[in-house]
Write a structure and sequence with these properties.
The chain has 15 helices and 18 strands. It has about 425 residues and is α/β, with parallel strands linked by helices. Strands 6-14-7-8-10-9 form a six-stranded parallel beta sheet.
Length: about 425
């Protein structure tokens, strides 16, 4: 009997799971990967900064799983809308949730309609061209932006705001989104971190990119002299000294050991100090709202035991939906392969389920038109061609309708 599985989410964790299942299966297997958007790759497409093309190249490896005839892509299908999770369970022996995180954390009281406060999660996703997403900040100028966070995402937001359209040729940020960022005319970025400088989570590469922005002054509060060579605080102090005698039009200021406690009338208050900003971006982590009313652990992710969702024999979870959003994209490979092993070890019990009819036929009869892998390749080709005409890696579509217009016909291969 063929073992039939559904994966909800075509991001790295979901595709690593499909890869692990194919590699480890010793029985006939069919896998259908469902995705809300027409486009696959999730975090790799919309969560990695558009000027980090080397990191985004992982999509070429992730795409290989669809070369196997046992794996089907069904994009542009929202589970919970076009079809329920219960219907999936009736049509597959096992279902894995790989939807990732879907919102940024908040936590700072804001008492000022004058200042927009957004999550870095929303800003990065919007800048990367997430379809049909409104600009998360107010239109117009934002000369002074505060960013709360001590990690690489905070550095990414700062770099994107200050570089703006200068990233055009070397990124896959959509032109329209870069144009909007340019109109903000950000000239001053304040990075507000709760930790000491020695405890930051900046990687050397991301920190170096920000510290070496052209014609940008680097300043700091909370870093003392005598920092050890090779440390983030040493790199920051060096950049401060190198730009100390020149007054550039742009600046980055690192504030350490400051805990923003409130925002009022464009003033961010942290203890005895305060700063004035036009917008505030919170880069303090991500979280999920409970998908499909599944149980959540106290930490805020889907409750599970080594990938098996608590209280269910046929439901599994992989990636950031099932654990704290930490690590790199590659970190998901090992954990997803481990969950694949767990699923396959339970297949004899799961195969006892009596399944309903073919789910893709059900979707078609209901008027739902899934995007197949060949359809995604047509979208991909259209974006890359538009990019070539502009001497760019690609020009992403920023609306679902644009994506679908690039598909000559819907198919599910």
């Amino acid at each position: 009997m063929t073992f039939r599985l559904a994966i909800v989410g075509a991001g790295p964790a979901g595709l690593y799971l499909a890869d692990g299942l194919i590699r480890q299966a010793d029985c006939p297997i069919e896998i259908t990967v469902f995705e809300d958007l027409p486009t696959p790759f999730g975090l790799a497409r919309y969560g990695v900064a558009g000027d980090h093309l080397g990191t985004k190249a992982v999509t070429r490896l992730l795409a290989r799983v669809f070369r196997n005839d046992a794996v089907t892509y069904a994009g542009n299908v929202r589970i919970g809308d076009a079809i329920s999770l219960e219907c999936l369970r009736e049509n597959f022996h096992a279902v894995a949730i790989a939807t990732g995180v879907n919102e940024g954390r908040s936590g700072i009281p804001v008492d000022s309609p004058e200042i927009p406060v957004i999550s870095a999660f929303d800003f990065i996703r919007w800048a990367n061209g997430y379809p049909d997403m409104d600009f998360p900040l107010k239109a117009g100028t934002c000369h002074r932006v505060g960013i709360v966070g001590n990690g690489n995402v905070a550095l990414d937001v700062a770099r994107i705001l200050l570089r703006g359209k200068s990233m055009y040729d070397s990124s896959d940020f959509p032109e329209s989104r870069l144009s909007t960022i340019g109109k903000m005319k950000t000239r001053e970025v304040r990075l507000l971190g709760r930790r000491k400088a020695v405890d930051t989570r900046f990687s050397p590469k991301e920190l170096d990119e920000l510290l070496n922005l052209p014609e940008t002054s680097i300043r700091t509060f909370g870093v003392g002299e005598g920092a050890s060579p090779g440390t983030p605080e040493n790199a920051i102090l060096k950049a401060v000294n190198e730009t100390a005698n020149v007054e550039y039009s742009r600046s980055v200021t690192f504030h350490f050991e400051c805990d923003p406690i409130s925002v009022s009338h464009k003033i961010v208050n942290f203890g005895a100090r305060s700063i004035c900003v036009d917008a505030l971006v919170l880069a303090i982590g991500q979280s999920i709202s409970s998908p499909f009313n599944l149980p959540l652990a106290d930490e805020g992710y889907i409750a599970n035991e080594s990938g098996q969702i608590t209280g269910y024999k046929d439901l599994y979870v992989v990636g950031w939906a099932g654990g704290p959003p930490t690590g790199t994209i590659g970190t998901n490979r090992v954990s997803s392969h481990n969950v694949a092993k767990k699923i396959l070890s339970a297949r004899h019990d799961l195969l006892s389920k009596t399944l309903a009819s073919n789910i893709l036929e059900v979707l078609r009869k209901d008027g739902v038109k899934p995007i197949g892998w060949a359809d995604w390749l047509a979208i991909d080709d259209a974006e890359c061609l538009a990019g070539q005409l502009r001497n760019r890696p690609r020009e992403k579509f920023t609306t679902r309708s644009e994506m679908l217009r690039a598909v000559p016909k819907y198919s599910v291969d």
